[in-house]
Design a protein that fits this description.
The complex is a heterodimer of chains A (about 425) and B (about 280). Chain A contains 13 helices and 13 strands. Chain A is of the alpha+beta class. In chain A, helix 10 (about 320-330) crosses helix 13. Chain A is rod-shaped. Chain B has helices spanning about 10-15, 60-65, 90-100, 115-120, 135-145, 160-170, 190-205, 215-220, 250-255, 260-275, 275-280; strands at about 20-25, 35-45, 50, 75-80, 80-85, 100-105, 175-180, 210, 225-230, 230-235, 245. In chain B, helix 5 packs across helix 6 and helix 6 runs parallel beside helix 7 (about 190-205). Classes of the chains: A alpha+beta (about 425), B alpha/beta (about 280). The interface of A and B includes residues 11, 16 and 334 of A.
Chain lengths: ~425, ~280
Amino acid sequence: MSDTGAPPRSALATVDLVDEALSSAFARPGRALLTALGTVLGIVTLVATAGLSRTAGQQIVDRFDELAASTVDVQPATVPGGLDGTETVVVGNPMGWDAAGRVARLAGVDAAATLSDVPLPQGAAISAVPVIDPGAAQTVPPTILAASPNLLASVRGELAAGRFFDSGHDRRADQVAVLGVDAAAQLGIGRLEASPAILIGDDPYSVIGIIARTERNRELLDAVVVPEGTAKERLGLAAPSGLVVETSVGAAGQVADQVPLALSPNEPDLITATAGWEPSDVRRGVTEDVSGLFLVLGGVALLVGMLGIANVTLVSVLERTGEIGLRRALGAGRRHIAAQFLAESAVLGTLAGMVGSATGVVLTVGVAANRGWTPVLDPWLPLVAVVLGSLAGLLAGAYPAWRAARLQPVDALRSAT
Amino acid sequence: MGDPAASDTPSGAAHALVELDGVWRTMDAVDPIHAVADVSLRIEHGEWWSITGASGSGKSTLLNLIGCLDRPTAGEYRFDGIDVASLTDAQRAGLRAHRLGFVFQAFHLLSTRTATENVALADLYRRGPRQDRRDRAREALHRVGLGSRLDATVTTLSGGERQRVAIARALLGRPELLLCDEPTGNLDSATTGEVLDLLEELHGDGQSLLVVTHEADVARRSGAVAEMRDGALAEKDNRDGALAEISSRDGALAEKDNRDGALAEKSNRDGALAESARPDTGRAR
């Protein structure tokens, strides 16, 4: 019956769709801006919350993580041992007397010092010469530690009085000792003017300094520290049993990876080097608490913003019923009408995403600058925020677009005069 | 892809442009209303038909049916041989985009855009070249005599100018049938004359036209008139007045008896039609 067949379907090029959506959305720029405002606020809240919590979290972490982030602790590797496997046994100790020097040469290392436990000779005791007080309470005797001369820098220690031993003492194996402040108190040594001495076993050691405080290795405060050379000569120390390394902030992980190779190139497994806390673990713990509530707030703001777009787009569908009728008369199918309103609300959402994202970043940087913080932003954050805005717009436009597409062309044309 | 302009002549030989056969459009209601009742109409290529009738007589509904904006609830409608009832929504949209043009009483222009942009809008849903869209829109505006207002915003145009923009928009895709729903309803008599002159000129160039109007002056200009009453075609009148066919369908018969007044009116119009035969004689057939 028909020789012409089905007519060509109508079409709408994507370029035209975007063009139409842009010119319709910006036909009333003031309204577009107001419509998008709610979504802008939502996006700003989300971006600023994410940015600020990350920035602030980074600052908190920087403060109490700085020490951990610059500490590497080096020990000989241990394996479970003993009869029941609960004790640990050192497999072998490849550390030589030059261990501190080797490690100090690694990039990122600010200071490295060996620190070894020295077993007290059999039957020996530590005592101070001047006073023997039989009435004193029985206390745990101080431990003896042997250290290289640069120990204080590695543990960030400070002396209360006197001086620390130097490489000369070390080389000559001088019988000198530096006491931790607690050990000094226990031994009854308060002032150094009288050149006090202590006895380790039968050997006298001059006390040349008292350590007031350290940031690392607090056990030093309770110890008698002697030069490594002295411990080797007189107390039978065979090899250093550990290293304390101070690194640049952030270099700890990398240094910890390199130390075993530097100390024991053939058998790096014999050395265990441990960096302080992993900064990211700490940061995660801190920021999640802080930002959770604000993210919820941002989500609520975004939702309200979406309702705003949905509402105005719906009003616009009702207002532009005549235009919809006209477009249908010009050959637009239902899907073209739906696509147009979806595109318009997506344009509004994208606009809101861009404005909100930019504002959020500026806000983050501004607050950070005000507080003297380093702004920390995920580089994907602004992009994600814009996409989020577009999605919000699309979602908000779904119902109005459906309503617009459902209009009968005849009704649409009639309703607007 | 069919070229709408080219299909004018070859298919025209085989099919009438519009063929309505016992078409009904019944509105759903508690008491169903027959907006269009059993209408049969044949419009050939190149004809200018007017449909007149009081408001509520169903003439606009008939135009919407012919314009594929609405579908009949019963009866057959073939547009250039295509059974419109068998088309999907999207196919009818394609038909509107490529082969039909609309002019409305309310102009339906986008007020924030310029005349050229409004005309170019007609190309939006059409398959075809897009590069020269703007140029063709300007050309169409020149054709309707608005060459000097190409970039004027719609709000700065007068009513007559607005309707001419709407006509240019409808003409952009070279439609086979131009459907005008009360095209002069919002215009004063002077601009009505201008618009009708323009339609006449288009008709002279071979454009098929269907004009719905309640104004006798407007109907007088056309070659053929059909009058509607309560949804039915009360009277059809071809351009030479040779065939005064009165709808003999049931329902229309009952009306025929009490149409004395209308017939009297009609006889007046016959005289007017004779007058308006002048432009017809000069028309290229």
